[in-house]
Amino acid sequence: MISSFLSKLLTTRQASFTEKGIEIFELNFSMQPLAALVEFQKEVTPKKMERFGYLMSDSVINHFKKRFAIEEDKISNLWTGLFNVSGFGKLHVVSMSDKEATFEIKDNNFAKLYQSKYGEQKEPVCYLICGILKNLFEKTTGKKASCKETICIAEGKTSCSFELKVT
Ligand SMILES: [Zn+2]
158 CA to middle of ligand 1, Å? Predict the structure, then answer.
């Protein structure tokens, strides 16, 4: 079933999927299979994957700020809505202050796919999502931050958990 967030964007023409392209809030997107990201991770360093995620979020937030000049909490709501339809799973904010935050994803499809392709992992693997969350947290706090995934579905856990800290 289509998410209510996406459905609203489509009916109000804030999102369009046509042969000319995919636009969400007038920002161009592309679709790619998660399996490609999972395989790509084997060929690059964790740092590069995190950087890729960081740039994904950076493009979205910078575009929102430039295009709409809207208030911070609205940007954050739109960002969360977009993340939740991005195919990684639903993001839960466990806690958030101006110095640290904890995020959780219960049905993280990236980690599930990683585990089914490469077996149970000894360490968390969601560097891409760490990068996405790190960017969000930095934009929210206005300070440099770090992200560490503490438990991961690819390790056989029931969720992926991310700890963000101002550095
Ligand atoms: Zn994970």
Answer: 10
C-alpha span between 100 and 137 (Å, rounded): 8
Kindly list the strands in the beta sheet with 15-18, ordered across the sheet, starting from the edge strand earlier in the chain. 15-18, 21-24, 27-29
For residue 155, the CA-to-ligand 1 centroid distance in Å is 8
Cα 85 to ligand 1 centroid, rounded to whole Å: 17
For residue 46, is it left (φ>0), alpha (ψ between -120 and 50) or beta? alpha
Q: Which residues of the chain have pLDDT under 50?
A: none
Which CATH homologous superfamily contains domain 33-166?
Trafficking protein particle complex subunit 3 (3.30.1380.20)
Question: What are the Cα distances from residue 88, in Å, to 2, 67, 69, 80, 146?
Answer: 15, 26, 27, 12, 20
CA angle 81, 50, 65 (to 5 degrees): 45
Residues in the chain: 167
Report how far residue 57's alpha carbon sits from residue 63's, in angstroms, rounded to the nearest whole number. Answer: 10
Intervals of CATH 3.30.1380.20 along the chain: 33-166
The mean of the pLDDT values for the chain is 93
Confidence at residue 70, expressed as pLDDT on a 0 to 100 scale? 65
| CA angle in degrees (0–180, nearest 5) for 152-153-155 | 70
